[in-house]
């Protein structure tokens, strides 16, 4: 009976070890960093650049149903969301709502297919 579930156990344990250990090491290292330290600034810069790289990939090379939308509409929605984010107090929710609203409005005015 246990033999048929052994592969699932291995996947769960290996997946947990591969991610959780790094999270704990990050917490331990992060507790030792000062708020304005260069190391923390570097970590923030790397994290921000990774998020922006994923966002740019989704805008320029989308998959799924977003792939059917025109590039100009995706670019317009992303730029308008970023401007709204900056202009209205750097609130992430504002940027997301503005971007999605423009994308939805564009798809309503210029339907796909």
Automatic annotation (TrEMBL):
Keyword Membrane: yes
The protein's name in its UniProt record: AzlD domain-containing protein
Recorded superkingdom: Bacteria
TM spans (from-to): 6-27, 39-59, 71-88, 93-112
Organism of derivation: Peteryoungia ipomoeae
Keywords: Membrane, Transmembrane, Transmembrane helix
């Amino acid at each position: 009976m246990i033999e048929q579930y052994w592969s699932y156990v291995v996947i769960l344990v290996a997946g947990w070890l591969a991610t959780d250990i790094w999270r704990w090491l990050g917490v331990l290292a992060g507790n030792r960093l000062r708020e304005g330290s260069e190391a923390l600034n570097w970590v923030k810069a790397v994290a921000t650049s990774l998020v922006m790289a994923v966002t740019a990939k989704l805008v320029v090379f989308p998959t799924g149903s977003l792939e059917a939308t025109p590039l100009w509409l995706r670019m317009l929605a992303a730029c308008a969301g970023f401007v709204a984010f900056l202009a209205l107090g750097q609130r992430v929710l504002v940027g997301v709502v503005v971007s999605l609203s423009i994308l939805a409005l564009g798809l309503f005015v210029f339907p796909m297919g």
